[in-house]
Every structure is written in C-alpha cells, then in structure tokens.
Amino acid sequence: MPEKICIVYNAPDTGRCSAVGEHVAIAGVLQAVDSVQEALEGAGRLVSRLAFQPPLERGAAAIRRLAPDLVFNLFEGFDNDPVSESAMARLLEGLGLRFTGAPAPALRRCCSKQETKALLRGRGLPTADWLLVNPGDRGEPNTFPLEFPCIVKPVCADASHGICSDSVVADLPALRRQVARVHATYDQPALVEAFLPGREFNVLVMAPPLRVFPVSEIIYRLPPGTPPILTYGAKWLDDDPAYHMSAPCCPAAVDAGLRAEIQDLAVRTFALLVGRGYARIDVRMDGNGRLMVMDVNPNPDIGPGSGALLQAQCDGLSRRAFIDLIVAAANGARPPGTGAWG
Ligand SMILES: Nc1ncnc2c1ncn2[C@@H]1O[C@H](COP(=O)(O)OP(=O)(O)O)[C@@H](O)[C@H]1O
Ligand SMILES: [Mg+2]
C-alpha cells in the first residue's frame, strides 16, 4: 500500500497584507504545495491536499475522514492571526496524527521574536539587545536603553512582512514613527533591536537524524545609503530594484572555522527552540564580527526559489530527495503525545 499523505495549508487570504501591498508572500504557499505534491507523487505516494480557512477546527473532520498515514504541514497561519500557525500542529497532535515539521510548542514560541530572544539569552546564546514596545506604551527618551541605529519590526511576523528601508532608524523621532507604523499596520507590539551591520547568514537544520546544511549568505549590492537588510520588496517583489541587489549565495564564502561556528550556533539554537522537523536559522554579525541569532524559522518556505531548497540543493539533494528527507524526519520522530519532543 502506498503511503497516504495529506498536505495541509492555509487557503491564501490576502486581506490585511493586500492593503499594504504584501500579498505575494501569502500566495507563495500554493507554489510550495504544488512542489511538495509533485515530489511526493513522483515518489509513489498517494497525495491529497486540504486548504484551511478559519476556524481551524472545521477542517478536523475532513482530515479524520482522509485518515492519512502522514500529514505534510505547510500551514503558515491565517492572515492577521500569526499565532494560528502553531494551532494546526496542536490540532494534528490532538488527532494523534504524524506530521512533518516542528511540534506545536516550537511553532508557538518562535512566532514571537521576543520570546525567542528571551529564551536564547536565558541559555547564553548570542542575540542582539532589544526592547519591546507595546501599543500604548510611552517611551521615555532619556532612558532609551539601546544605541542607534536600531531596527524596528513587528514582534510576531515572518517573511520580511513589515520590513522596509525606513525600519532602520538613527534617532528617536524616526524610531517613534516606525513603532507607530508597526502598531497601526500590524496591530501588535514593535520589537526594537540593535542594528547588526555585518554579514548575514542562513542555515537550515533538520532532525531526526540531525543534519545541518551548507551556510548560505545574503549578498547585498545596494546603492550607498540604503541599509543592507532584506526588506519585503527585496525578498518578494521582482520589480523592486532591491530584489536584484540582495541575493542568497550558497555555499557562503566562509573559512572552515567560521562555517563551523555558524553551523554550531544554528544547531544549538535548533536544539533549544525547535527540536524536530526543519528550521532555517538567520544569523548576523555585529560590528565586532560576533555572530548573533537574528531569527528562528521553524517550517520555513521550501517552495521553488526558497532559501531552504537552495541550501538542500547545495548539499547535493534533488528537490524530491529533500522532500523525502522531511518525510523521513517526521516518520523517524516518535508518535505525538509521547512527550519526547517539544
Ligand atoms: N537586528 C538586525 N540587524 C540588522 N538587520 C536586521 C536585524 N533584524 C532584522 N534585520 C534584517 O531584516 C530582515 C528580516 O528580519 P527578520 O528578523 O529575519 O524577520 P523575518 O521574520 O521577517 O524574516 C533580515 O533578513 C535582515 O536583513
Ligand atoms: Mg528572517
């Protein structure tokens, strides 16, 4: 009997993101679904796909009816409800189904950059200094604890949503403007973080068995005066000039020592915050060349053109072999509910 796999994902809903021109990232999930389906069917699996709309529980009966051997979890959360990404994993855990990717607690904690950074700091792993500003908080200019420049981002977002050149701020008025923009547009706290001006790396980690992929680097060739950051436009919009001036390069041009240091930091971060599945760890150097964990992305985009797929290919894997590894990691993980992971 071929293995029955059900791909679950969010039916793209571009509501709020469309309003601010950030809908391409949302629609990208369909490309990943097509790509995974093709790879799984090519390997002889029986594949079904299930798009979810809120409320999540409405789809529970449909999954139960399908009774898959495995669920391929490409659910990224509902628009305007980033925490819902972890709710899918929780639902699957509750149904006793085996599924790919990270367990629910990992998805929930990594959804908050604040919680991620606090856990890293608590374990002595390096991450830039930061400050959380809730809507309604009053900033006291005299006691602002960070040095400029800083970067201001939504505390709970991914895929460069809410990141533009103006996100990098050099003084208090600009900081206040960006904080207000995050509060108004994304309806959530703003994370103000010390700006890391150095090289930017991404590393994919997978388990079980533990596997760390080649280091990738984002190479910026932006005009002088433009902050070297991966803005929403640089990541998603091919008519944005920055899109063609910010490209991942894999493998990164790093010596063996630096490569080992980056990969070791990524593995320790993965072990602390994710545990099983696959995650892309974003790391950046501060002004003194010290590595800092910037962003932890369990279940990152694995569709065509994604950084994760690029790293897998750089490690000699075909797209199909990469998807197979993700399935094998899920099948190698203990059944949900045993408390072994997460
Ligand atoms: N503290 C920082 N210093 C320098 N650049 C940053 C910092 N935080 C974010 N960036 C830039 O913004 C991009 C998006 O930020 P990130 O925290 O990775 O959010 P996302 O979850 O949207 O990927 C990063 O790829 C990087 O280029
Ligand atoms: Mg990131």
Oligomer: single chain
The number of helices is 11
Helix content: 25-40%
Distance between the termini: 31 Å
Write down how many β-strands occur, each being a DSSP E stretch of 2 or more residues. 13
Based on secondary structure, the structural category is alpha+beta
Radius of gyration: 20 Å
Overall pLDDT level = 91
Heteromolecules bound: adenosine-5'-diphosphate, magnesium ion
Which parts are unreliable, with pLDDT below 50 for 5 consecutive residues or more? 337-342
Percent of residues in beta strands: 15-25%
Helix/strand order: EHHEHEHHHEEEHEEEEHEHEEHH
Largest sheet: 6 strands, antiparallel
| Shape field | globular
What does this protein look like?
The protein contains eleven helices and 13 strands. With 342 residues, it is of the alpha+beta class. The protein has helices at residues 15-19, 24-42, 60-66, 84-94, 104-111, 113-122, 172-186, 232-236, 256-273, 307-314, 319-332; strands at 4-10, 46-52, 70-73, 130-133, 150-154, 168-169, 190-194, 200-207, 211-212, 216-220, 246-249, 277-285, 291-298. A hairpin with a 5-residue loop joins strand 12 (277-285) and strand 13 (291-298). Helix 2 (24-42) crosses helix 11 and helix 4 (84-94) packs antiparallel against helix 5 (104-111). The structure holds adenosine-5'-diphosphate and magnesium ion. Magnesium ion binds at residues 282, 295.
